[in-house]
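Pasting as-is:
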Amino acid sequence: MPEPTGVIHDIGYQRYTGPRLGRRAVFGALYLHGLRTAFGLGRSPKAKIFPWLVVAIVTVVAAGLAAVRSQVGEVVLTYAQFADNMSWLVIFFVAVVAPELVSRDLRSGVLPLYFSRPLPRSDYPLAKLLALATALWLLLGGPQLVMFLGAAFTTGEGMRGVWNELLDLLPGLLYAGLWAVVFASVGLLVASLTGKRAFAAGGIVAVFLMTTPIVGTLSIMPSQTVNELAFLASPSTLVGGVGAWALGDLLVPEGQGGVPIGDFGPVYAVAAVLLVTGCVALLMLRYRKVAAR
């Protein structure tokens, strides 16, 4: 009988005896990593340029609005109007960040490693979606806080002025949350369809910008009903329609016009819910297919 030639070397591997944190910890780690990725934290200096440039732009605009208000004593933009006016920056922020969150993992083929942990297939896209929505809410809500701090203590009405300003701020933060949820849902779904970040970014911009001409076409049709429902055709104007219905004068002060949705406000609200629900459902289905490969 030949002598064995194999040798087992002890290179120091030990059995893990620490706590096994489970699903909640994995979800939290994915969420935190996604949020850091959105702002380029923990990544190369090049990855930080665009997100922090956008943060700087919206913060400078908010500080400028607060300074003007303190000088002239009049509101230039309400908190909700600020979110509306910054939406074009949000589109490009989503187009850059969403592919970083999901397309890179698709292209590198690391999803099986994620799913080898105690992580249900639905938790991965939900953590990424929550991270992107949080980043967008911070992007719009942070500058609103700057506007609040600049306005609350220059009203000359003491704590009553601070309280009234806070009551104006809260609907603005909720409206920023609506922008964040809708844009994150649509953007992440589009980005999840391809592992190529350039294609994903182009697809996101196309979805948001190329639907705008449809709104313009429908809004000049001879039917008033079609005109008032035209804003359903684009995610951006859909959010504006919900805001016009839910916030009223807080979004557009009386006499300044606004999104002409007539009495279809509830329709816009239902459409927004269905859009987000549909995008999330398709996102779950997409990752169920990816995991099955």
